[in-house]
Amino acid sequence: PAGTYLINPNKSLSNMEACLVHMLSTHGVVLEPRKRIFAANQAPDLSANLECYECNGCGQGYWWCDRPTSSASRVKNQATRLFELCLRGGVPIVEGGLHMFDFVNVQAEREKGRTEGIMDQLEHLDVVKWLKSDELACPFDFESAYALRDEHDQIVGESRAFTNVTFDFVGYLDYVFFEASRFRLLGQLYLPKSFHELNERVELRNGHLLPSDVWPSDHLAVGAQLSIPVVEEAGNKNTKDGVGDTTF
Fold first, then answer.
1. Number of H helices and number of E strands within the chain?
2. Rounded CA separation 247/33 (Å)
């Protein structure tokens, strides 16, 4: 899918860390270092007397400890290393204070990146220039195999409401695209249209959630049968009405 980034973990950790810089740069991410207290849990503000932080992702809180072997020190040291690596690679940051990273010299790290050639490598990545183009366009005229059409045969959306159903997400994530000018759509793989269809064999509470015993993946399989029309040559009568098309 778009945005996929393949990494070979067997080469070295440094290569994987460099991939982080590439991913952030190519996806237009802007870093924003910040300190967060337990506001989400209505905890008292102890920031004046005690250093306490909260994980941006899971909300887990922890207190700062200066011991090099403490989990807090190891987390901060590794986060600092990755932050400095991103700075060397030219990843932009939000203007303002660096909060818990205020000891990092941004300009020095940027200059170190130029010296090491990291920024030069990123500036010459074709994919970076391509993604930053103001006139980015696709040369193909794609349409979805599950497209929903109105009475005027105009595409107005998708004919199915979802391909992924979990406890906290329902959405259409999976597509089969083709060029209607080059392929003929013959049929589509069956996709359920409702939660009832996902759970019709045995009516269970939350039985529509994926995966299940009927639908063994958290994504519903999508598929289409297409044929490639054969260009009719003068005097060739076997290609009329699609006879002779290659179907797959």
1. 6, 11
2. 54
**Residue given tokens 């991410």 in the structure block:** 29
- Cα dihedral: 29, 35, 37, 38 (round 10): 30
Complete edge-to-edge strand list for the sheet that includes strand 246-247: 184-188, 224-228, 246-247
Q: Is the pLDDT of residue 5 over 70?
A: no
- Kindly give, in sequence order, each residue whose CB lies less than 8 Å from that of residue 161, ignoring residues fewer than 6 positions away: 170, 172, 193, 194
Residue 144 has pLDDT above 90, yes or no: yes
Mean pLDDT over each residue of the chain, to the nearest integer: 76
Query: Please, are residues 172 and 163 in contact by the beta-carbon 8 Å criterion?
Result: yes
Please report which helix (H) or strand (E) contains residue 195, including its range: helix 195-198
The pair of structure tokens assigned to 46 is 């102890």
Instruction: Return d(Cα 176, Cα 147) in angstroms, integer.
Output: 10
Evaluate if residue 130 carries a pLDDT over 90.
no
Helical (H) or strand (E) element with 116: helix 106-116
- CB neighbour burial string for 142-177, b if at least 16 within 10 angstroms, e if fewer: ebbbbbeeeeeeeeeebebebbebeeeeeebebbbe
Chain centroid to Cα 187, Å, comes to 29
Which residues partner with 179 through β-bridges? 142
Distance CA 159, CA 206 (A): 23
Eight-class DSSP state of 219: B
pLDDT band at residue 1 using 50, 70 and 90 as cut-offs: very low
- Could you give the maximum distance between any two Cα atoms of the chain, in Å? 91
Place of tokens 């020190």: 73
- Crossing angle of helices 71-88 and 13-26, in 10° steps, is 60
